[in-house]
Write a structure and sequence with these properties.
Elements (H helix, E strand, L loop, with lengths): L2 H18 L8 H14 L5 H10 L1 H11 L10 H15 L5 E6 L5 H12 L6 E7 L2 H9 L1 E3 H13 L10 E4 L2 E4 L1 H5 L1 E5 L11 E6 L8 H14 E9 L13 E5 L4 E4 L6
Parallel strand pairs: 1-2, 1-7, 2-6, 7-8
Antiparallel strand pairs: 3-5, 4-5, 8-10, 9-10
Helix pairs in contact: 1-3, 2-4, 3-4, 5-8
The chain binds S-adenosylmethionine.
S-adenosylmethionine binds next to loops.
Protein name: Methylase of chemotaxis methyl-accepting protein
Pfam families: CheR
Keywords: Methyltransferase, Transferase
């Protein structure tokens, strides 16, 4: 997208923010504008300006825009070595607290939150834990809340779980029904799924672990640093942050968090940094 179209795209996202409160203004241009072009094409709008007028008037189009703008690819125990490190290095520290609070930001369809709940269950910490799992995309949150996944996703989940060092039969956490698997109500009951927009909403509590993986890749540095400050503010002393192994902190973010394992995207709240 070049010249005039790029200007129209900026105007589109400014209007969507001003009138509807969804802020994509500081998402990385390339993928954001590609997604907008796909949205305009799919609905056969003559121009971005026409799309703008229609989105403002039609809530169903806004829902579709949100689904188009967000990438919700995820899986259980994604990057198994990260979960292995959480199991061996982070859970023993969490075990020393009477209450454990975890925030999964950008949880998509919920698999990451359920993976953490399984780790906690394995070591008998689930009853002490509350997991808050948030996303901007309401359709993804609906799937997450239902806790029902296709059976073939469980095949991959089992492989990832074992690669992360898990030793229990994975089927302990779900019942299979036809081509679907229903996760255990015990896992479901420890997770609170709700809508939270990292671009506009503020901190909402104090946590021992925050996971926000594969979300920063869509943000410009300025927006990412806003979120890093919220995370630093929201972590208790010695609290951990997990970002995607292929992501990195901004220059400002590196002052707020010390590496626990940079390669895996694991950090600990710095004792010196200030949000
Ligand atoms: C690629 S998924 C990552 C899912 C999971 N964390 C993982 O690593 O497998 C990115 C998620 O970030 C969410 N997201 C994008 N912008 C967001 C925002 N401003 N606030 C909250 N979530 C956002 C998307 O809706 C999407 O579900």
């Amino acid at each position: 997208m070049k010249g005039l179209e790029a200007i129209e795209a900026d105007a589109f996202f400014y209007t969507v923010f001003e009138h509807l409160g969804y802020d994509f203004r500081h998402y990385s241009d390339a993928s954001r504008n590609r997604r907008l072009a796909a949205f305009v094409g799919r609905h056969r709008f003559a121009s971005i300006s026409e799309a703008q007028g229609r989105v403002l008037r039609d809530p169903a189009l806004l829902t579709d825009l949100l689904a188009t703008m967000t990438v919700n690819v995820t899986e259980m125990f994604r990057d198994p070595l990260v979960f292995s490190k959480i199991r061996t290095e982070i859970l023993p520290r969490l075990a020393t607290y009477p209450r454990i609070r975890i925030w999964i930001a950008g949880c998509a369809t919920g698999e990451e939150a359920y993976s953490i709940a399984i780790l906690l269950d394995e070591v008998g910490l689930l009853e002490r834990a509350t997991i808050y799992a948030t996303d901007i995309d309401t359709e993804s949150l609906r799937v997450a809340t239902a806790a029902i996944y296709p059976a073939d996703a469980m095949v991959r989940a089992t492989r990832n779980y074992q690669a992360s060092g898990g030793e229990r039969p994975f089927s302990h956490w779900y019942v299979a029904k036809y081509d679907r698997c229903i996760l255990s109500p015990e896992l479901r009951s420890r997770i609170d799924f709700f809508s939270h927009n990292l671009a506009t909403d503020s901190a909402f509590g104090e946590f021992n672990l925050i996971m926000c993986r594969n979300v920063f890749i869509y943000f410009e540095d300025m927006l990412q640093h806003r979120v890093e400050r919220i995370f630093s503010e929201s972590l208790a002393p010695f609290g951990n942050l997990a970002i995607g192994p292929r992501e990195s902190l901004t220059e400002g973010g590196r002052k707020l968090f010390d590496p626990l394992d940079r390669r895996l995207g694991l950090f600990v709240k710095s004792r010196h940094g200030r949000p």
